[in-house]
Specification:
By secondary structure, this protein is α/β, with parallel strands linked by helices. The protein has one domain: 3-Layer(aba) Sandwich (Rossmann fold), CATH 3.40.50. The protein has 12 helices and 7 strands. The protein has a 7-stranded mixed beta sheet, sandwiched between helices.
Amino acid sequence: MEVVQVLHMNGGVGETSYAKNSLLQQKVITMTKPITEEAITKLYCSKYPEEIAIADLGCSSGPNTFFLVSELLKVVDSVRQKIGQKSPEYQVFLNDLPGNDFNTIFRSLSIFQNKLRKQLGPGNGPCFFTGVPGSFYGRLFRKNSLHFVHSSYSLHWLSQVPQGLESNKRNIYMASTSPPDVLKAYYVQFQKDFSLFLKCRSEELVDGGRMVLTLIGRRSDDPSSKECCYFWELLAMPLSDMLVEGLIEEEKLNSFNIPMYTPSPAEVKYEVVKEGSFNIDRLEVTEVNWNAYLDETDLSDAFKDGGYNVAKCMRAVAEPLLASYFGEEILDEVFRRYREIISDRLSKEKNEFVNVTVSLIKP
């Protein structure tokens, strides 16, 4: 599986699109907002630059893309007004893999820019947008050209499926039944990718530049712990059932593995220190319920079903990977069964995604 070609969220604005099913990711951005606000404020107040270049890596498409940008610009604008500074000009780079739905982003750009101008009022500097397709496990920008880098719920995706997963049969990710060599293979790939990411960004950021990165992770030292692998283990269940029923080929299921790694805070810290380009300002862990609509009010009957919500969220993320490997014709049935499994588990236990957020400075 060529990850660069098939890894992207569901595009468009339909019922299974990421744009319609990304409330959970928005809640994570909101939850980590204090860390992001602190970092952009410290960056601005250190030099009061006349221009600020911001890169959002793994921007996807939909409301979250512009939500993050608007929050950053509002923070800078508030600070500069308090101290009587002229507004900087902004250059915003929106990056994701080539399969991302950039068309939807740019079709809605003018609406967003008009809304932003009204929110910030007169005196705010112009904001220029550029789409940057490509993998962030390589150079994307000129040397010393960025001031601030943000990435949320993207960096846990690996550049490729790790080598040596042949013994991970019937599992689609690290699981409680995965052999030790599988866990090691995933960790080695994460180390390689994350170190390369840090190296590339260190070349692109100016001295004093900052990054805030949020990944799905875990608190446990065990990479196959329930807190980070359970949602994939549950997705493997309908696939296994459909294998028994002859709807999926055994060879395909045994060779399918999710290109993802959910690190612990200690593992993130270790790689940052080992690579050596950045200092850690903050490293924090948060949790968010699988069901993003849990505390929402005025919901339709459908959204009161936690299994429905989680299954739609996971489908918006995982569908392109599954479709490329097993074909589109099985997807409705896979996620129908997955919804039933999730509903059953949510009725019996509380399940949360663990988020690892690190704020970094290039000295």
